[in-house]
């Protein structure tokens, strides 16, 4: 399965909800990922630009984007960004493939 990193920020209503009922949100997020065949690898609450950083596995990027959209639709988060992550070994293979394509692209103009 592919690895993804999701960054999210709570909305004002999301923060209010957490203050009214403080809880670990791993279970509800895992329940959503279960529906698409994924899993939470790690979930962190952070400070700074993002309130949440999650590492997850899912069969396809569309699955993680759909989960993020479902969470955003609840109004509890104001921003969700999901990116694909590759291990060092996986990225070596990507770089090798890129090397075979070098010179094959004709730029405009």
TrEMBL record:
InterPro entries attached to this UniProt entry: GYD/TTHA1554 (IPR014845)
Q: Which domain of life is it from?
A: Bacteria
This chain's protein is named GYD domain-containing protein
Organism of origin: Ruegeria sp. PrR005
